[in-house]
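User: Run a structure prediction on this.
Assistant: Running it now.
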Amino acid sequence: MAAAAPATTSPASQETAAIRRADGESRSLADSLPRLVLEARRIAANVIHGLHGRRRAGAGESFWQYRRFVSGEPSQNVDWRRSARDDHLYVREQEWEAAHTVWLWPDRSASMAFASKGARDSKLERALIVTFALAELLVAGGERVGVPGLMNPTASRGVIDKMAQAMLHESAARASLPPSFVPSALAEIVVLSDFWSPIPEISSTLAGLSASGAHGTLVQVVDPAEETFPYSGRTEFVEPESGEVVTAGRAERWAADYVNRVAAHREAIRAETSKLGWMFSTHTTSRSAAELLLFLHSGLMVNKGASSAIVKVGRIG
C-alpha cells in the first residue's frame, strides 16, 4: 500500500462498512452539522476561561498593502485603479485587517469521513469541531477568521454559524488540499487534513500559500487504525475517493512496510514545512478535541506575540 493512501484501509467488518459510508456521510453534512456546532461551542466554552483576548489598538484605517482578490468575496472590494495595472484583481487591505486574519481550512474530502471503532469521531467530524471551536476563540480574542475560497474574513460573534452555512451551500467539489489564494504577509493559516495527498501536491500547495510571507500550521488528523494498522487475515482496502479496491490475503504482513511508509511520508511533509518556518503536527481522533484546540490556540498566541516566529511543537497525540 502506498503511504499516500492509508486513510482508505478498512477490515472486512466494521471498518469496511465505515469506508463505504464515507461518501454518504460527506453528503449528509446538513444532518451532522448541528451536533458538531454544539460540540464545538461546548469545547470552546470549556477552554475560553483564562484565555486573554488578542485585540490591540492600532491604526486600523491605515493602508497596509494590496492583496489578490479572493474568489467569492464582493466585487466592490476590488481596487480597480490598482487592478488596471496588470492582469490580476487586487483588494486594498488596511493594517488592522492584515495583522488580524487567521485562515482556517478543514479538509472535507471523502477520505476524512473514515472512522474505526477506536475513534471518538471521524476525521471529518474532528476537523470541523476543532475548526469551529478555534474560530469562536479567535473571534472572542479580536481576530478575523476566514475560510479560503469559502468565507471572507469576519470578526462576527456568529462566526460558527457563518462557517456552517457557507459549507452547507458550497457547490464546489471537496478537495483534499486548500485552494490557491494569496493571504496577507502577516496572516496565519491553519490546515486540518489527513494529508495523504502525494508530497508534490502538498509541496506545491505550501509554496503557493507561503509565497506572500504568511505563516501557517498543518495538523494531520488521523484515525487510530491509520497509526497502528491493526489488520490481519484477508482484508479489503477501499479508496474512498476513487473507489479502487485492493485485497490482502494476509494483511498483517503489510504492517511493517505500512508503518515505514507513513513515517517517510510525514518526514517529507515535515521537511517541506521546516523550509518555510511553518509548523507540522499530528493528531489522532482517539485523543481529546480540546487538546488539539488548546495546542492550536496557544501556538497562534505565541506566534503573534513573538513577531510571527513559529514555535516548533511536535506530535500532539
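The chain is about 40% helix and 15% strand.
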